[in-house]
Write a structure and sequence with these properties.
Helix content is 42%, strand content 12%. The protein has helices at 20-26, 38-47, 64-79, 94-102, 116-132, 150-165, 181-190, 212-217, 234-237, 253-265, 291-296, 302-308, 325-332, 350-353, 356-364, 370-387, 400-404, 437-455, 460-466, 473-486, 495-500, and strands at residues 7-12, 30-35, 52-56, 85-89, 107-110, 171-174, 199-203, 218-219, 231-232, 242-246, 267-269, 276-278, 282-287, 311-314. The protein is α/β, with parallel strands linked by helices. A 5-stranded parallel beta sheet has the order 2-1-3-4-5, sandwiched between helices.
């Protein structure tokens, strides 16, 4: 029998000696190649002759921010989904991991916690997952959707018609947090039927306002302090494919003007550059903000809204398509990150993994966080079932929110006193005219936090989850350290925030 060829691993790191022991131990399994400069490594990545790349983030002390936002993005674009990229780093900050994942990393290895066994396991996992799952798709169907509902079937039919009607038309997907707007954008990209076209995504709310133009448009060397070399922006990296810009409702009025000009002219300039670059990509926007209301309150420009919403699709909330609940659970029970293989529920159906009473509670719940909330909730309940030695999820391991249901006006949690959803407790909406942009932004963001706290019954971490955050640390900072100090007068409009955070 012919011996199976070794898989080739390219190491791109300016500290090659770090890998000596690793290479020696796994030399019989993998064939290693290494370069100590990304300048050389990027050409090898583009050649595409490897099965996996181990990529350092901090070359020559340029810093992790540069590594994340320039080197990693460039490497992912050059790899073009032909093989996975694992980030190797000394930095174990949660923010770095989230940013690396967002920018396309397939896995993470921490030099601080190095052991050959741990690294071998992670490489094996990434290789297996990379070849087992379709590219850039949250749901492992050829079309990107899991659905049994007529609403989503009709939505897919409408989206599928767009590439033939106008392949470069600007599109807006809108809907609540966690409904799957990026899944829909991926589907739009897939129905173009050209796998060579790149799909580039960015969450605009996760980028510092001072860096967002450089992130989108790129910059030239010397454009500002810290711009030590030219950078390719996402508009250019998307090429002739799709650029997905999520949370468009969160950007400043100033940036809205600049993006409107780009859409109208189909050209953009790198920060600090004189020459324009043609925009080749299709721009796809998404938001969970009511942009029509934002236009009325003057936190969103009407001309920009009209331009991006000509072709728009609403992604329905999970509570309006409850037929999809079980198919989605069935899928997540096959995702090892959600349901480890050692659990008896792995690979089973919802009906086999839940007691009838527990599953009924899920159908009664209102799902303000939609599919994202379903995934994280299922993961928590599976862990609780594992701790308690259960082979299914019953009422004993349900989260409190499912047992209690939604807090209506006649179901008032004692710790919250007067229920903030009662119209008599809500102050009239203030007039936004002539407010500075910073104050408009604060009011808009506090409105989202207020709603999340109401939907979660005043539970801070649950509210954070509804907003797509890991915990309430970011909310607490913005409420107590930032906005309450800047604009204390705004908080009269947000009684839930005041009550929960004891302001």
């Amino acid at each position: 029998m012919q011996e199976e060829a070794k898989k080739k691993i390219l190491i791109v790191d300016d500290e090659p000696a770090f890998y000596d022991g690793f290479r020696k131990k796994l030399d019989s399994v993998y064939e290693f190649f290494d370069v100590s400069s990304y300048h050389i490594g990027k050409d090898l990545i583009e050649l595409g002759e490897y099965h996996l790349v181990l990529l350092d983030l901090n070359f020559r002390d340029q810093g992790y921010q540069y590594g994340l936002d320039t080197i990693l993005l460039d490497a992912v674009a050059k790899a073009d989904k032909k093989f996975p990229i694992i980030v190797c780093t000394q930095d174990t900050q949660v923010e770095t991991l989230h940013r690396a994942k967002h920018n396309g990393a397939d896995g993470f290895l921490f030099k601080k916690d190095y052991t050959p066994e741990l690294w071998e396991a992670e490489i094996g996992r990434v290789l297996k997952d990379f070849h087992a799952l379709p590219d850039s798709c949250l749901i492992p169907n050829t079309d990107g959707f899991i659905s049994a509902s007529d609403k989503v079937k009709a939505l897919k039919e409408r989206i599928s018609k767009l590439p033939s009607f106008g392949p470069k038309m600007t599109v807006l997907f809108f809907g609540e947090t966690g409904v799957g707007k990026e899944v829909a954008a991926n589907y739009l990209h897939q129905v173009k039927n050209d796998p060579t076209l790149p799909f580039v995504a960015i969450n605009l709310s996760s980028i510092n306002e001072n860096l967002i133009e450089s992130e989108l448009f790129g910059h030239v060397e010397g454009a500002f302090t810290g711009a030590i070399k030219d950078k390719i922006g996402l508009f250019e990296a998307a090429g002739n494919g799709t650029l997905f810009l999520d949370e468009i409702g969160e950007i400043s009025l100033e940036l809205q003007v600049k993006l409107l000009r780009v859409i109208e002219e189909r050209k953009f300039k790198k920060v600090g550059a004189n020459d324009s670059i043609d925009l080749e990509a299709q721009l796809v926007f998404a938001t969970n903000v009511d942009l029509e209301r934002a236009v009325i309150s003057e936190t969103f420009r009407r001309d920009f809204y009209e331009r991006i919403s000509t072709i728009s699709f609403e992604i329905p909330a999970l509570r309006t398509r409850r037929k999809d609940l079980e198919p989605l659970i069935n899928y997540f029970l096959e995702v090892e990150e959600v349901c480890p293989k050692m659990l008896p529920m792995y690979g089973q159906t919802a009906k086999k993994s839940f007691s009838a009473a527990a599953l009924s509670k899920l159908y009664q719940y209102h799902w303000p966080g939609n599919i994202r909330e379903l995934r994280s909730s299922l993961q928590k309940m599976l862990f609780e079932a594992y701790v308690k030695g259960k082979d299914l999820i019953d009422e004993d391991v349900l989260l409190d929110r499912f047992r209690q249901g939604r807090f209506e006006f006649d179901q008032i949690p004692e710790e919250m006193g007067n229920y903030p959803g009662n119209a008599s407790n809500i102050s009239p909406k203030p007039d936004h005219n002539n407010w500075p942009i910073a104050k408009q932004t604060a009011y808009h963001e506090l409105s989202r936090i207020e709603k999340a706290l109401i939907d979660s019954g005043g539970r801070k971490n649950d509210a954070a989850e509804l907003l797509g955050l890991k915990n309430d640390q970011t909310i607490r900072y913005k409420v107590k350290k930032k906005y309450f100090k800047q604009f204390p007068e705004l908080f009269d409009s947000f009684p839930t925030i005041k009550k929960v955070y004891k302001l």
